[in-house]
Amino acid sequence: MISRLHAFIAESGYELSGRHHEIYLGDPRRAVPEKLKTVIRQPMRKAG
């Protein structure tokens, strides 16, 4: 999934400017796997 995000960023004319981090929404001890969500944040800047 991260590689797809990085490819999209490069194709859009941007470059990575830091490490990504993930925010997990939901409690894996209580929720079924289909209901869990993850937000991926990737710092980027205009290439150039």
Q: What does this protein look like?
A:
- By secondary structure, this protein is an alpha+beta fold.
- It has one domain.
- It contains 1 helix and 4 strands.
- Strands 1-4 form a two-stranded antiparallel sheet.
- The chain is elongated.
- The model has no long low-confidence stretch (mean pLDDT 95).
Helices and strands, with pairings:
Elements: H1 2-11, E1 14-16, E2 21-25, E3 37-41, E4 44-46
Antiparallel strand pairs: 1-4, 2-3
Keywords:
48 residues; 4 strands; elongated; alpha+beta; two-stranded antiparallel ribbon; 21% helix
Summed up:
The chain is an alpha+beta fold and 48 residues long. It contains one helix and four strands.
Question: What is the alpha-carbon Rg in Å?
Answer: 14 Å
Largest sheet: 2 strands, antiparallel
Assembly level: single chain
- Number of helical regions: 1
Total E-strand runs: 4
Total separate domains: 1
Which structural class matches the secondary elements? alpha+beta
> What's the end-to-end separation, in Å?
25 Å
Shape: elongated
What strand line-up does the widest sheet have? 1-4
Strand content: 25-35%
Strand-and-helix sequence, N→C? HEEEE
What low-confidence regions span 5 or more consecutive residues with pLDDT below 50? none
Mean pLDDT: 95
